[in-house]
Design goal:
Residues 19-282 form the Alpha-carbonic anhydrase domain. By secondary structure, this protein is an alpha/beta fold. It contains seven helices and 17 strands. It has helices at 7-10, 20-23, 28-40, 149-152, 179-185, 245-251, 311-328, and strands spanning 48-49, 55-57, 62-65, 73-78, 83-88, 97-100, 107-116, 127-128, 131-132, 135-143, 159-169, 196-200, 216-224, 229-237, 239-244, 279-281, 292-293. The chain binds zinc ion.
Length: 334
């Protein structure tokens, strides 16, 4: 009975734990998409998502496990190429991970970062039916089996990125201002210059990352840079998030490693990008081929649980920061 639950118990974050069978499921559909990954994983990314030609497929539900757990530390960094969010959790707390969907193993949260452009007519790396959106967020994960992001990035199935696209909304519609993005942007002036960071108040990742189980796009494509080539499993949310012109403008306050304004940091779609399979996983009952407006359901949208950290705590953690920052803040997108 709810009345019998102690205050301590009610403060425990409820975690949606996927069933054990989901972590190891290798049914025929999952095997099939893995075959496609082998065949197409080294083709270029990003791509245009042509909604009419996506291939519907049923896969086991995707789970964002432990994403609702409050962080121990949140750091926002300008790494000279993008704005990166790194997090740590209490030692006994599992790091949030993806499981189910196209995966046969866990993919652990590594970092998230953004891509934007010089105007609101550009910015996203992926386009949808030829349309480029003003902002794209990459939530980067590495396969837990490989232990670190750096080791995972050398494996063909090591990295999975969840993509959220943002559409422009009018500033006048105050309710439409994205509060999560605004929380990050409120601190952006303190990280104007490359290789600077600021610590934010704690919140669960669900404050920024909207979990989904079904109704997303899936394809396989590599990131090729001058320093590294690596394959990525791309999962693209069908729900488009909102952002205002003013919010996008704030991203352009950042400076790159050459101390030049970071005005556009998206990779354009290669001119000769190869066609490949783009799956629409478990399409919803909305039959029209389109992106969907972001409408966070009241019961699942977790508002931030802000938690002030003391200066003493900050000093204690400075040493561990060094290793964590070096290891996890690397952004492999230019
Ligand atoms: Zn990226």
């Amino acid at each position: 009975m709810a009345d019998d639950v102690s205050e301590e118990e009610t403060n425990v974050v409820q975690i949606q734990e996927p069933e054990e069978k989901d972590a190891g499921v290798t049914d025929e559909r999952v095997k099939f998409v893995q075959t496609v990954a082998l065949a197409e994983g080294e083709l270029d990314s990003p791509i245009n998502i042509n909604l009419t030609y996506t291939v519907p497929i049923d896969l086991p539900p995707l789970y964002f496990a432990h994403y609702e757990v409050l962080t121990k530390k949140v750091k926002l960094k300008n790494n000279g190429r993008t704005m990166v969010l790194n997090c740590t959790w209490q030692p006994k707390q599992p790091v949030p991970y993806l499981v189910g969907g196209p995966f046969t193993d866990r993919y652990e949260f590594s970092q998230l970062h953004f891509h934007w452009g010089n105007t609101c007519m550009e910015g996203s790396e992926h386009t949808v039916d030829g349309v480029q959106l003003p902002l794209e967020m990459h939530v980067v994960h590495f396969k837990t089996e490989y232990l670190t992001h750096e080791k995972a990035v050398k494996q063909p199935d090591g990295i999975a990125i969840v993509v959220y696209l943002f559409q422009l909304v009018l500033f006048q519609l105050h309710a439409e201002i994205n509060p999560a993005i605004q929380t990050l942007l409120d601190s952006i002036e303190t990280i104007e210059h490359a290789d600077t960071h600021v610590r934010l108040e704690n919140f669960p990742l669900t404050f920024i990352v909207e979990p989904f189980n079904v109704d997303y796009f899936l394809y396989f494509g590599a990131i090729h840079t001058s320093v590294l080539d690596h394959n990525v499993i791309w999962l693209i949310s069908r729900h488009v998030m909102n952002v205002t012109d003013d919010q996008i403008e704030h991203f352009r306050y950042l400076y790159d490693v050459f101390d030049e304004p970071m005005l556009r940091n998206f990779r354009p779609i290669p001119i000769d990008v190869a066609e490949r399979s783009v799956f629409h996983v478990c399409p919803s009952t909305v039959l029209i081929s389109t992106l969907l407006q972001h409408l966070p359901p009241e019961d699942t949208y977790i508002k931030p649980k802000l938690c002030k950290h003391s200066e003493e705590e900050e000093e204690e953690e400075e040493e561990e920061d060094g290793e964590e920052t070096t290891e996890q803040s690397i952004c492999y997108c230019p």
